[in-house]
Amino acid sequence: MIASSIHGLGIAGASGLLTLMYPVEFGTVDQFVVKALRQVEGLPQRAALERMNPEGLKPTDGVILIQIMRDKAVENNRAFTMDSWTPKKIDEILWTYGR
Q1: Is the pTM of the predicted complex or chain greater than 0.85?
Q2: Nearest-CA neighbor of 69 among 91, 95, 36, 52?
Q3: Residues 50-97 pLDDT 10s
Q4: What is d(CA 99, CA 28) in angstroms, rounded to the nearest whole number?
C-alpha cells in the first residue's frame, strides 16, 4: 500500500520497487504473472486468480500473488534442498511464461 501511494506507481510498479529492494521477500506482480498462474493446475488460490483483472490489479491481488510466489520459492527450496529460490526468481519464470 505504501509503495503504491508513490505518484506514478501502480501495483506492478510498487511491487517492482519492493522486489528490487527485497528480492528474497517480494516478486513483481503484473498481468503476465496472473496469466501464467491461471495455467497452473491445482493452485488453492485458483478462484482468487480468476476474479483478478490482470490489467487492473488491486493491492489485495498483489498480496495474494506475492504469497503464491513466496510459497513456491519455499516449496522449490525444500524440493531441491537449496535456498536460492526467491519470489523474484519465481516472478521471472512466471513473467516469461505468461508472455
Answers
A1: yes
A2: 91
A3: 999 999 999 999 999 999 999 999 999 999 999 999 999 999 999 888
A4: 14
